[in-house]
Amino acid sequence: MLLLLACGSPLDPPNDQPIDDTGAPDTAPADTDTDTDTDPIDPDDDEDFLFGDDILAFALTLDAAAMASLDADPKTDVHATFTFGAEAYDVGLHLKGSSGSFRDLTEKAAFKIDFQEWDEEQRFHDLKRLTLNNMVQDASMSSEHAAYYLYDQLGLVAPRHGYAEITVNGELFGLYGVVETLDIEFIERRFEGDEGGNLYEGGYGADIKHGRDDNFELKVDGEPTDRSDIIALIDATDVSTADDHLDILDAQFSGADTLLDLWAAELVTANDDAYSTLANNFLIYHAPLAARWTMIPWGPDQAFRTRYDGTEVSVNEEYYGELALRCQTSPACAARLNERILHVLDVWESSDLAGFVDLETARIEDACRADPRSPWGDYGCRDALAAMRAWVRARPDVVRDQLVGG
Question: What's the whole-number mean pLDDT along residues 58-70?
Fold first, then answer.
């Protein structure tokens, strides 16, 4: 039997049911702190510094026409100047988010930055794009950062994450999450030598099942009318039975254990807005030479749900990811998922996730509490960070106690 952990009821405003636009990786720079790094970056360095230990400082400048355009049509790029230290770039900029996460420029807007919108040769330290996440649905401003760290420790393919402090026309907008955009450069870095395949973005309405495949948005490569690869994946998994579902996952994806590790991490972190819990916030990449698929997580700002005690919850069959739902009904797959949950707990402890969260939340606390546009305020951030630290430390024992037969 599959143990399902810590989902729960929808959040109260301002953390209403999240619907992230992952149209290009949806995550954003975040940071504000007296430790803001304004030192020049060695031009020979690659982009790793964006996802390192510093809270960076980015400035955005928009003229009146650009501001008016974004007010009328927030998803269409406008000209903006992106400044980092002594570096200035003419970029394409539009606002990010949908439903609960979207904010306009009168609030804490999130941004997508395209350095090649107007100049195909321009890059920002090897990057073509940046996603700057407003983190308005996470009072601790640390859930994505911690989730991506855990995914990395598990050896999963996932974006990198850092923090930055953002000003717009000289006004402080606050702490942002800097998330690696899921584009061709991401694929080239993570699938070196096998980067010629298609990357599809899933989300509400898209799932690996017939009738919902048209809702996948192609991110890489091009816009072919031939979607035979994803149709073949759905055909292969659609015929699975309780007896062979695990074997089919193993044959179609980059190993069943890798896929189940992702779902296990989503469950252990109580992320109720992920593939395994809501068929949302995921991408799938087809590596053509390996002839295997990889599921890539996105936007885990609803992970580490500290308001939930981790009790078992029932499956919402209308939204639950189809492949994970089939896993629940397959004794072999459900048993393997429980094993991978225990593996995630072991990695959680061996990688000292609690220590990482202690350090990282201390690093951003001043900026989080002072964020002028956060809907949570000083004490909301303070309490959320304290709850996050305590929850991460207690979680392994809570989950082990709840495992069926554990």
Answer: 98
